[in-house]
Amino acid sequence: MLEVLSIETIITFITASVVLSLVPGPDNLFVMSNSALRGWRIGLYTTLGLCTGLIGHTILVAIGVSVIFQTSAIAFNGLKIVGAFYLVYLAWLSIQNKELNLGKAPQDITNKSYYFTGVVMNLTNPKVAIFFLVFLPQFVNSNNNISSQIFLLGLLFIFSAFFVFTSIAYLSSFLEGTLKKSKTINKNLNLIAALIYIALAVNLFFVHL
Q: First CA to last CA across the chain, in angstroms?
């Protein structure tokens, strides 16, 4: 599969992918906040969830389904509303908890929860689908198998995003100790988490075609 793309194209694409992954956005904020509140492992599982969602978007672009979200306002708005309400639901769950219990939750349940949240958050964001639909084809060589190139480009972008997001998770995790030591912040961690979820929901809800 590697021969369908030139080395120059691959290097250019990876460079662009890393830069785009570093641009501040909802995914960066999500990984950073989870890592700061719960540690780098939670940031890692959040990243794995987001990257799993990117696999779905890669498949959609490869088979052309993402065109629906670019041309159908109903499909686009429906998906973003589902995603926004899911984030609001997560905010409500955070408010309902009396204490965030940093590091005390069962590791397997916590990991699965944050991984699933990352997957759903990414898949229900039509902006990501449109971005992949516009970004990936720019590096495709029409003389070779287009589907194979799309899959390869998608995988390269996922690996680039994974590298960037895990770095963000690791660096942000150093804030966890400070948050635990601060009584004022610790009492309001659920509210902070809820506000982050709501901010992400508002950002998604106002995304336009």
A: 33
**Which structure tokens are listed for 135?**
């970004």
Residue type, 86: Y
Q: Do 122 and 82 contact (CB within 8 A), yes or no? A: no
Q: Tokens 């997001």, residue?
A: 165
Tokens at 4, concatenated: 């369908």
Which pair of tokens denotes residue 63? 């088979």
CB neighbours of 164 closer than 8 A, spacing ≥ 6? 18, 21, 22
Alpha-carbon span 98 to 170, nearest angstrom = 27
CA separation for the pair 73, 14 (Å, rounded): 31
Mean pLDDT, 10 residues at a time, over the chain (209 residues)? 73 90 80 85 93 91 70 72 77 66 48 87 82 80 79 93 93 73 59 73 66
Q: Global pTM?
A: 0.73
- Name the residue among 204, 201, 188, 208 with its Cα closest to residue 94: 188
